[in-house]
């Protein structure tokens, strides 16, 4: 066993070295370098080129690669990282995936795969005995390089000024500025060191395996597993993680040396299983919201008028129907193009519509085609039955990916999906139930109702029909309730949950749907080729799909058409030479980097195009009714309020954040039909009380009840459905939607709730009720004129009103409004007060109002509670509270001016 441990420690040390460099750059720049393995790969090829092809001595070659080449690459990456400052997480992922593809494509162009290349070992091969086990000097040196580099880096980070600055740079850039240390310089140093570590690991790995760009790139992805063990933060733990993975792999190889089943792939997929497992089972880390993940456009989105879109769709359909007449020699490429349109629609639903991420979508193609082939060929199932079964098999596997999505959206989800894709390939592709070890799988073409689609042209038209159906289905989904929920989830998962819909149900649904549609794409693509093997579904293809999808422009289904054209048809027409594929990979990589560093609005339709298209458009009369001014009786209230519910009761509530007691034994009531103020200086704990009431903040003690029923053990969506609505101090709007969409979701999200079917289908009655309540809420809040404006384009005051209208449209008993008038001027605030009173009168709801504007509090509140340092210091009518000495002391030190308007941040 000892020799395996020694071998494991040696290779583990190389992984650890790479992982430490990765964590360093992530910690200092907040950018996770997906291309870390590609850098190692480039270093290995650089070393090979210098030493093996040009006879440079190994120390000089290693020094040139690690001390000259790698720092230069590090500087380039630092520049890209600078340009990405302030970009969304999605763009950071796109840029780094772009770097990976560019390096990979470039390397494969320079060193075409297929030729056998081997770096001769360069470290001394003499060996000595350690505890009776032979150990080579090469192993010792490799191990020592890892230890020394990590130890040196740790000392550097702890002792040197730049090192200290490096540790602080992510947390507090301004502090660094004030220390006289430029954060940019610090980050640059980190990127240089990180790249050098990737370079060193590439050089050390080079002689250990045949030189191949993809295998080293993915071998170094092992470092991702080690980084996960170190919590993406601790360097010593990351180092230990690298060693542990190395030893674990080595031991698995020993024990499963002859294993042919799944166990045979365990060793190589261990790092990815670790990565996936940690992200699924580890305690939650801070969750970046999906909104952090997606690119946010500041300019309102523009879509061509529907007549132009319809005309465009017909022209496209016409061209596709005519393909056999002008593209007969490229029928395979055109048929695969259609399959890729389906695939991009699947991925787009997930990434572009719902703001999730998947770097494993090629896996669903593989699962789909393998399942289909076994069912149709081995089991003799009919073509449609096998297709539907393949889609159904992919769905629960998609749901599995939703688990990390629920726990860690954003970057960690991207990593988990990448790990999933690689583990699937390593462990399952060669199994008999997938592609097996033989020549591949036969994928038949259909024969339906006596009509054969075996021929290339026939199958093309068949694929065109299926693609059109899938496109209509995806367009339908995006326009349906599920589509609205997914877009809302992408903009603000918190806002959606607080409106009553289970975000997790939406997530699982979209992953299942996307996986199933991906499987259908796999079947179509496989049947186009008729024979497929596992090597066609390499995980790197998933990265390419993601990058191409992100750079494609337009809505559904245009981005899918554009992406599939770029990925399949364009390369096929240029040449069948594999180098064209590599050149396209390089091109996609560079385009992805360029796209990611562009300003957020650059991807939207060009300004000059818009008037042109608008002029071309035929204007159809709008079927949309203008918002009605409510004249009849208001819509029915939730049962509790209608039956004279007792409202919200907060009992002895305590909330702690670590050592800080933010709320300390607070008790208060808010009754339907009344407005209750909750005031207090900044940091008094008001928003925390709201968070605990709506289930977004964990309470440490006490209870929250609505109509005497305990709410405390429920999440935000259930509480909303029980009758607790809220707005947020930092508004949680669905920015990509219109005002009407936002307001409608206030009611519709509650109907969707936790029921997957209700996420998909809205009953007639519900649709009518949503329309009615939306119109009423819009009219009540004076938003009729703005109903079709995109929320992102509105001013703060208007946005606050939209959030209020969203609450007013919901079926709530109590509304928690958190500083709803902040950002409004005096006139707007007075109007706002009148609207609040009207909502209470018309809807019969109760309002608990957190406000700094005392004129608003004194003019509309029936009762006021006052917090200071987390405890309640007074309660009563406005007059009683104004007269309270404790309250005046808490505010402005005995000044009666306390109840003038309070600028934010005022605190004596
Ligand atoms: N997630 C958190 N983690 C740690 N501390 C927190 C967190 N949220 C709030 N706090 C702290 O809890 C205390 C109460 O904060 P809270 O936001 O509830 O006050 P507030 O009365 O709403 O203030 P403001 O009027 O400024 O919004 C503050 O000291 C704040 O720094």
From TrEMBL:
Chain ranges passing through the membrane: 6-24, 31-50, 56-77, 89-111, 131-157, 215-232, 262-285, 306-327, 333-351, 358-377, 383-403, 410-429, 458-477, 545-574, 580-598
A GO MF term: branched-chain amino acid transmembrane transporter activity
Main location: membrane
Entry keyword annotation includes Transport: yes
Domain (ABC transporter): residue spans on this chain: 648-894
Topological category with respect to the lipid bilayer: Multi-pass membrane protein
Record localization: Cell membrane
Keyword annotations: ATP-binding, Cell membrane, Membrane, Nucleotide-binding, Transmembrane, Transmembrane helix, Transport
Pfam families reported in the protein's UniProt record: ABC_tran (PF00005), BPD_transp_2 (PF02653)
Gene Ontology annotations for the cellular component aspect, listed alphabetically: plasma membrane
Protein origin, superkingdom: Bacteria
Protein name: ABC transporter related protein
